[in-house]
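Design a sequence for this backbone.
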């Protein structure tokens, strides 16, 4: 993990206007700068960049964040890559221990290995230019030179030591070891009697370079031209290349994914390049492995909609089910996952060639939403008409509900399933071990007695008169109070840092009374505020919140906050006034409970003493 102190220093040196300005044309608009949002298509600018807060926010689509967030969302970089790119621009070095804590894909990255991969990719492209047989194969598959160039497609001849022309003799151990390390060379171990054999992994194949999100070549895929096995061959796992963490074509497709507002996932690189040729440049593919959660996370960083397109045969259905399982823990009410199944005799490439782009687009629009595919997955090979079959479906679905986030979509799927099973939502929630979402109508007793509004003592104080004026402009209902406080603490963590233990306890209590989730968020937020340094800034604190388990909730609240922003003085008055009101409400609630016992003549002497104490506290509160 990158040290927090380094992130703070980096953000203090980086100017977000310069970072965003490289990709977005910004113009001065009041105290901020404004431009067309790079994350969705719009005609009127709603994308705002604050120089003072070092933060961006789109009032159209809700995208927001710091300079680090912008590179992650716009360029599709990982957190570490974004930090490294910004650090390089301002002359800082990312602490080495941070890289050691990162995923295997980033632990052993080396400029030496990238240089080797780049030279190999160039060699393969040059070889393609000279080989008419290979060019004819691509032409017959309908690929243009423009698409071949965009994807860096190449060819390697049918020989055992092709790469010696670039790197020198394989008898040199340094050359051989380096090529073997990146998966270009296969070495057989000698037994003392025979010498070590070294030969190219890829021979007589069309070569597809596999790039990371920076555009660097990290691996290769090879497709046999004539008959032979295996038809497709990928680089092995290397320090640069992890199949479960890489999507072929994502680097080339990310711009089009944003423009077309969805990503299309298929099974192979020929599907990707063919679809790009035929009007679907937003396609990507997994690389000889099942779709993983990491794959889905990568896609959802670039778009809110993902369509999985698999062959209609049994293997395609199995691949779709694995993709479905990878999606379940990452579901969000703001994201959409769909599944497209083509006729058994077709893959996306053949379907578009035979039926045209319009027919394929129609199939995409008719694709199956995850909620319906859910019923198909759990109902596979069972008889819904029998009690035994429905019990099997109910039992099968339990594993998925346990992994699914507590979102509105889960409730909707739960209700649909209850109808199909002839059960109730509450029964299924109990069976799955989920907290109940059934809301009971409970009469709410008002906390404040009816009194003359003008006679309230606290309103005579100057700071609370100011609060009253603010409330007229931005009214807050009692049920909104916890959420409003959370939004203010998100913007000004200094206010949370100053809370006393009792004040923090009171805020957590009233938030919990609203919902259990609100209480957990309030507790988490106050703890994060207290850990903040005294000179913490807005942009830096948002990066802290993005690492919390409640990051999605903070993001949602932050979007609303930036639409009705408070100054620090206004926020201070709101928090002070809220704390006073909460304290008074707690006192009144306890007094009402004692009064109720007195009226029923079940009170104790301690009740009478406590009532008098509370009365004195109310006068000074």
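Sequence:
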């Amino acid at each position: 993990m990158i040290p927090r102190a380094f992130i703070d220093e980096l953000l203090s040196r980086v100017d977000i206007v310069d970072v965003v300005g490289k990709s977005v044309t910004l113009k001065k608009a009041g105290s901020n700068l404004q431009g067309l949002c790079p994350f969705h298509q719009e005609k009127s600018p709603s994308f705002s960049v604050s120089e003072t807060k070092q933060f961006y926010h789109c009032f159209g689509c809700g995208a927001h964040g710091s300079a680090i967030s912008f590179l992650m969302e716009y360029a599709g970089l990982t957190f570490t890559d974004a930090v490294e790119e910004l650090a390089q621009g301002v002359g800082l070095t990312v602490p080495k221990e941070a890289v050691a804590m990162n995923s295997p894909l980033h632990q052993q990255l080396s400029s030496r290995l990238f240089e080797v991969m780049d030279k190999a990719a160039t060699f393969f492209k040059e070889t393609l230019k000279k080989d008419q047989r290979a060019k004819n194969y691509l032409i017959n598959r309908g690929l243009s030179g423009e698409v071949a160039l965009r994807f860096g497609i190449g060819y390697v001849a049918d020989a055992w030591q092709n790469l010696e022309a670039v790197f020198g003799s394989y008898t040199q151990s340094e050359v051989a070891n380096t090529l073997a390390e990146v998966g270009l060379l296969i070495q057989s171990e000698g037994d003392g009697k025979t010498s070590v054999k070294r030969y190219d992994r890829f021979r007589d194949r069309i070569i597809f370079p596999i790039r990371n999100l920076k555009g660097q070549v990290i691996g290769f895929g090879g497709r046999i031209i004539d008959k032979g096995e295996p038809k497709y061959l990928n680089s092995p796992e290397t320090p640069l290349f992890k199949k479960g963490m890489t999507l072929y074509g994502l680097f080339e497709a990310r711009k089009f994914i944003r423009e077309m507002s969805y990503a299309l996932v298929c099974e192979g690189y020929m599907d990707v390049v063919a679809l790009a040729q035929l009007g679907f440049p937003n396609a990507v593919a997994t690389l000889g492995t099942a779709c993983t959660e990491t794959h889905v996370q990568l896609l959802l960083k670039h778009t809110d909609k993902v369509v999985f397109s698999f062959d209609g045969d049994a293997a395609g259905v199995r691949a779709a089910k694995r993709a479905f399982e990878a999606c379940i823990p990452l579901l969000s009410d703001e994201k959409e996952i769909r599944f497209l199944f083509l006729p058994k005799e077709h893959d996306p490439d053949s379907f578009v060639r035979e039926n045209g782009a319009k027919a394929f687009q129609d199939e995409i629009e008719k694709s199956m939403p995850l909620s319906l595919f859910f019923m198909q997955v759990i109902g596979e090979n069972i008889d819904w008409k029998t009690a035994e079959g429905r019990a099997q479906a109910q039992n099968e679905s339990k594993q998925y509900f346990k992994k699914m986030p507590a979102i509105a979509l889960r409730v909707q799927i739960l209700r649909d399933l209850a109808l199909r099973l002839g059960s109730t939502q509450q029964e299924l929630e109990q069976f799955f071990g989920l907290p109940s979402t059934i809301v009971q109508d409970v009469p709410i007793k008002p906390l404040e007695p009816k009194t003359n509004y003008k006679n309230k003592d606290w309103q005579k104080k100057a700071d609370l008169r100011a609060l009253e004026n603010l409330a007229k402009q931005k009214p807050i209902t009692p049920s909104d109070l916890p959420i409003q406080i959370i939004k203010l603490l998100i913007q000004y963590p200094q206010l949370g840092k100053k809370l006393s233990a009792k004040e923090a306890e009171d805020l957590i209590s009233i938030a919990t009374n609203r919902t259990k989730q609100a209480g957990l968020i309030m507790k988490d937020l106050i703890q994060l505020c207290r850990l903040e340094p005294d000179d913490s800034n807005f942009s830096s604190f948002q990066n802290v919140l993005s690492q919390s388990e409640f990051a999605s909730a903070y993001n949602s609240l932050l979007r609303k906050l930036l639409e009705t922003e408070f100054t620090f003085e206004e926020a201070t008055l709101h928090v002070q006034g809220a704390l006073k009101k909460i304290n008074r409400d707690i006192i009144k609630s306890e007094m009402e409970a004692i009064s109720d016992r007195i009226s029923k003549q079940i009170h104790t002497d301690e009740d009478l003493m406590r009532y008098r104490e509370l009365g004195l506290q109310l006068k000074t509160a």
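The radius of gyration is 31 Å.
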